[in-house]
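[agent] plan:
  1. take the single chain provided in the ticket
  2. run structure prediction with default settings
  3. attach structure tokens to the ticket
  4. add a short note for the reviewer (M.T.)
[agent] executing step 1
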Amino acid sequence: MIVQQQAVRDHDQAMRNFYAGTHRSPSWRKAGRDEGFRIVHVKPGDVRRLNGRTGEVRIPKAGWIRFRWSRRVPPGVKSLRVTRDRAGRWHVAFAAIPGPVPAPGNDETVGIDRGVVVSAALSTGELLHCPALSGPQQQRLRRLHRRLARARHGSNRRRHVRQAIARLRAREADRRKDWCEKTSTDLARRFDVIRVEDLRIGNMTRSARGSPEEPGRKVGQKAGLNRGILGSGWGLLVRRLQDKAPGRVEKVHAAYTSKRCSACGHIAAGSRASQALFRCMACGFACNADVNAAGNIAAGHAVTARGGVRDAGPANREPQLFTS
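[agent] step 2 finished; step 3 output follows
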């Protein structure tokens, strides 16, 4: 009875959000997508730990269900949600909002430049890479996609191939999420202020296919770039930083940050010698191109098209001209 009541409440909340204009219209349920249910009024005795790796939770009408004890269950939990992903794995999540990561108090600021080759470059010179599938796993994924294209719709063979693909995709997503969680926690503990580019990831990853009347150009290359952006965890990393370090994450306009020299401030497109090398045409300063852009982001500067610079901090909003 609890599951049906929560389903009705979820639908009612979804319709309220739709009529308020904050969300889209709720869609019809599809098998294999967003499978799960929520249990409310969880009592303290409904969750118990068996050993170092295993715990149990009491589910109405199902009894005690074992799960992997990945972290300590916070006290005062009142509800939980049981879900099943496309890879066929069941998960239990307890509704609890953790507290923010305390600031170190060292008055240090870091800039983060996000890219495809280097997932996150820090102004300190660190280059961070989001893990992906290994070479053999990528080859197996390509073979599975070819096998899926030859399988007949509705057949058991097609179902098994789709499950195998979903397991590989889930493994890739787990690695990306684990990297974002660890990286965001480390940055929140090391720096007082974290500055990132203000990117519109949804617009950047929009398909270039176009329409039958106006077909797009270089659709395959754009699709590969979109996969690289989404596989680097740009949005998840910033979102988790904002959750763990509220009020300490600042977004800086990304215009010309890769063309400006972080040492002298000279702006020139020719200073970007290659994807990985930045060599200033004015002062000769050379370093990794992503690290140079991260230095400009850490300074809080958004370079304007007129050659000026706009301070991202609230104290100074007036443009300043460079002298070369």
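[agent] step 4 note for reviewer: The first helix runs from residue 2 to 20.
[agent] ticket updated
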